Amino acid sequence: EAGVAQSPRYKIIEKRQSVAFWCNPISGHATLYWYQQILGQGPKLLIQFQNNGVVDDSQLPKDRFSAERLKGVDSTLKIQPAKLEDSAVYLCASSREAGTTGELFFGEGSRLTVL
Amino acid sequence: ILNVEQSPQSLHVQEGDSTNFTCSFPSSNFYALHWYRWETAKSPEALFVMTLNGDEKKKGRISATLNTKEGYSYLYIKGSQPEDSATYLCAFLDNNDMRFGAGTRLTVKP
């Protein structure tokens, strides 16, 4: 089966600019996650979707970050305006169901550098 | 322990050496412990999902053990190969969310 697709792989922007990342999960996976991984730290959950509904966005900086999964399939994560501390790898993952012990399937990530 | 902690942060071994690393996690509200391998420029891949105290899992030269009462898991690699070079992440799942450790970066020298 095809894996989780993410784009772009790399993005360099200046602070205060905006950026958007796209994710297409594995077909049939109901749950989609966006993680932020800052260098030297573990991935941190930004938002979790179950189909097209938000399950958890408690750690999403809502003043600048937004995410949507309108049709319950692919998803977009947007940052506007970007800050220097947003430099990170943004990982998208999917799983068959939420709240289970099933493994997560990750994309290759989108590496953002904010100058 | 409130967070997931992994040690060591990095490890350099020679080809053929056996090695192990530790993941420590909160011992309450345990649902599962995941291990992932993340090679440079690739996506993290699941190695093991462990749910029961005393679980031992094995995949080829890699194995893992789990102690939920004391809150730790060990990952072992027997006879390390250069292709084992990667960051190994553990993730703790409780009834609220999944928290990742910062990972152990393994480098295996030929």
How far do the termini of chain A sit from each other?
37 Å
**Proportion of residues in extended strands of chain A:** over 45%
Q: Please trace the helix and strand order of chain A, writing H or E for each element.
A: EEEEEEEEEEE
- Beta strand % of chain B: over 45%
Number of strands of chain B: 11
Helical segment tally of chain A? 0
Features:
heterodimer; A: 115 residues; mainly beta; 7-stranded mixed β-sheet; 11 strands; 48% strand; globular; B: mainly beta; 5-stranded antiparallel β-sheet; 55% strand
Structure, described:
The complex is a heterodimer of chains A (115) and B (110). With 115 residues, chain A is mostly beta strands. Chain A contains no helices and eleven strands. In chain A, strand 5 (44-50) and strand 6 (53-56) form a beta hairpin. The termini of chain A are far apart. The mean pLDDT of chain A is 93. Chain B has no helices and eleven strands. Chain B has strands at residues 5-7, 10-14, 19-24, 32-38, 45-50, 56-59, 62-67, 72-77, 86-93, 98-100, 104-109. In chain B, the strands form two sheets. In chain B, strands 2, 4, 5, 9, 10 and 11 form a six-stranded mixed beta sheet that branches. A five-stranded antiparallel beta sheet of chain B has the order 1-3-8-7-6, with no helix packed on it. The N and C termini of chain B lie far apart (37 Å). The model of chain B has no long low-confidence stretch (mean pLDDT 94). Chains A and B meet through strand 5 and strand 10 of A and strand 4, strand 5, strand 9 and strand 10 of B.
Topology readout:
The complex is a heterodimer of chains A (115) and B (110).
Chain A: E1 5-7, E2 10-13, E3 19-24, E4 31-37, E5 44-50, E6 53-56, E7 65-68, E8 75-79, E9 88-95, E10 105-106, E11 110-114
Chain B: E1 5-7, E2 10-14, E3 19-24, E4 32-38, E5 45-50, E6 56-59, E7 62-67, E8 72-77, E9 86-93, E10 98-100, E11 104-109
Parallel strand pairs in B: 2-11
Antiparallel strand pairs in B: 1-3, 3-8, 4-5, 4-9, 6-7, 7-8, 9-10, 9-11
